[in-house]
Amino acid sequence: MAGALPAEAGKPEEVRETRRSGSFPPAWLLGKFRRADSGERTSRSLDVKITSDAEKSDGAIWRRFKSKMRMSEEALDCLEKGRGDASCDSVRSQSSDRSSDVAMTFKEVSFDAQLRGGQQKQILAPISGHYESGNLVAIMGPSGCGKSTLLDILADKKTAGYSGTVHFNGRPRDHLFPRVSAYVPQEEAMPKCLTVMEAMEFNISLKIERPSRMTRKMQQLWLERRLAVLGLEKVKDHYIGDGTSLRGISGGQKRRLSLAKRLASGARVFFCDEPTSGLSATDAEACVRYMKHMCRYYNILVFVVIHQPRIEVANLFDELLLMTSGPGRAVYNGKMEDVIDYLRNAGFEVPLHANPLDFFMDLVTPERQDARVDTFVQQYRGKAEQEVASRVEAGLQAELVGAFQLLEEVHSYMQTWGSLTPLRDSVYARRFRSQLWVVFKRQLILRSRDKSGFLADLLGGLAKALVVGVVYMRTGELGAAQQTAFYFMLCMTCAIDGLKSMPAIIGERSIVKMEAAEVLYSEWAYIFSFGVLNTLQMLLVHSIFITVLFAMSGLRWQMYADVYLWSTLLAATMNALYLMVAAIAKDATSAIVFSSPFMMLFLLFNGFTATRSSVVPWMRWAIDISPVAYSIQQMVYAAKHTYADDENLVKGYEGVIQLSEYKDQPSRAIAVVAICFGIFKTVQLTAFRRLNKIQR
Hints:
Blueprint: H1 27-30, E1 33-35, E2 41-43, H2 58-81, H3 86-93, E3 103-114, E4 120-132, E5 136-140, H4 147-154, E6 163-168, E7 171-172, H5 177-180, E8 181-184, H6 196-207, H7 216-229, H8 251-264, E9 269-273, H9 281-298, E10 301-305, H10 311-314, E11 319-324, E12 329-335, H11 339-345, H12 356-363, H13 373-397, H14 403-414, H15 432-449, H16 451-471, H17 480-496, H18 502-517, H19 523-553, H20 560-584, H21 588-604, H22 620-624, H23 627-642, H24 647-660, H25 666-690
Parallel strand pairs: 5-10, 5-11, 8-9, 9-10
Antiparallel strand pairs: 1-2, 3-4, 3-6, 6-7, 11-12
Helix pairs in contact: 2-7, 6-8, 7-8, 8-9, 15-19, 16-19, 17-20, 17-23, 18-20, 18-21, 19-20, 20-21, 20-23, 20-25, 23-24, 23-25
């Protein structure tokens, strides 16, 4: 059409089928179109019921499943290669009487930020809109216009209060909205040691239960189709990586993986915050093009906050919501193809060879001298705003099926492939024990693969034991004072060992917080999984360190059990302290700073270098609560009892006991260590769940 943006040669055809029918599977599950034997593409239902005994066999189910995947592949081929030929025109003609599967409607949405001194600043002025499935919607505007704020409000991710109403399918969003929607942040942290396919499997395992007769191979084939829609099928076995310690997929592929994971999870509405930021022009275009495929192929609705895209990228969007700043207000809300006509009607002719969106953005950016903000605000408040208001009212009146009904549709169709547990009317798709098992398996995989984590910790513990063991190799032949120095060094080493794990734990926490915000699983599932595996790893590394070091020290093996017991209790308690700090601190640097006072308190007031008689009276309580002091004290008494047949050593240990004012108090020592451990764990769990949440 005359007012359209310059067309890009070879861009994908807008092929979609949005008619809802009980005989049709959900759009996002399998696709909708297949090529007929004659070579023409026709719309047909893929919801083939399995009724006969033969078809109910596993072999028949597998053949049916592969047949559906072939149909899906042909549909994707139609989407990617169709250029207005007769076959694709036939597909579109058969879907002319279409209705929306999902719709987002918002009315008079606004947001005021709270400033210091109690003052408020309007960030987003009242704005309305209505969008339906199958559309790729661009939200654009100058910096500070409230684009991301609006996106957060629509996605129900805004943690601060706002005004206005937001409806999904003509209904207020309920607790099930997170299960049918997806928020894609600008930068998403993902486990580096997972492959692309494993990341997909993790998400779908927590969102959609696998039917009893669907094998893992069938599920992977199903997931590969979603990867193909986003151009990731060739890297499905590649590690995600982190760009530093482990090479993986590219930045653009990671952005598309973020989309693919949520697509596989059954999301019907996507909210993408600047998915092309930081990407090359080629990767940015590919990312948006694949989102276009996603919209058309699965009939979903995608909102994208984006900065001044190239003309090739702009042509891929169906709708545009353009805003100005100071405060954020709409200046255009309509079809992307109508932008040039809108500008012409306002008296602005787009220069030859210019990008219409760049030209429009310049006119509505207040900081530019040639800006015409008031002109476009007034124009929008005329007929354009009335048209938007009419669409909004129509959207609010046309109540479509709710989130639970959409989930029921998927659940009913998946039963084609076997039995399922009843559909949960909960924010979480899977039961807690299922969440726990899936999260635990991933934790196990990550720890086994991460060479800088588990393996490095294991080898580091062994190397540390060998180095320290060489220094204290003749300890068993020395006097009581030298042996006590060995116990002191041993306890100090155990006390600071957990410090090294804080940066990695804080980095992993960001992944968990993001996934918990997407209600993939309860934070308790991660807490239990991490707690068990972290404890087992700590015990394994600690056991290797203590055993090798003790063997090299030359001390009598009769006291090994005591040394192992008290060093283990100390290591566990101090590890709990570092986990508590990691749960509280915002980043690794602040964690190190925050842990310093606790380390100084417990390590300096150790009862050996700083005794009850040497410290000022009003600080003796620090020794009384120090796990380090009690551990050294009980090791000294264990050594005295072990070497009871050596009169010189017994006298030496009595001198150490008298000088340090030690008392044989195993029950008191265990009680103090247990109380410290309990306090640290309680604070850790509380802080992990309540602090450092994603704020938007």
